[in-house]
Write a structure and sequence with these properties.
Blueprint (H helix, E strand, L loop, with lengths): L1 H6 L11 H14 L15 H11 L5 H14 L6
Helix pairs in contact: 3-4
């Protein structure tokens, strides 16, 4: 099992090639997180439409497709546990 050697321990190579993009993603997720928290729901629905708006306001350089992708990713990351 040679493949397990590559994933074991801290000797894994860094896969991320663009640390600036990763920082922007982390920034965007921080911006939209409050819209997906349980306390922020409106009649049991997330406020993802507000997340779109907030990202467009605070990160105007993002393309609409990038904003959409970030909101979809955030909704999956911050989705409540279905259990």
């Amino acid at each position: 099992m040679a493949s397990s050697d590559a994933t074991a321990g801290s000797s894994r190579p860094e896969r991320r090639k663009d640390p600036a993009r990763r920082a922007r993603i982390e920034q965007a997720l921080g911006i939209v997180r409050p819209f997906f928290e349980a306390e922020s729901q409106w009649a049991g629905h997330s406020l993802d439409h507000m997340a779109y708006r907030r990202l467009r306001e605070l990160m105007p350089d993002l393309a609409q497709a990038e904003v959409h992708l970030l909101v979809v990713v955030a909704s999956r990351i911050f989705a409540p546990d279905p259990r």
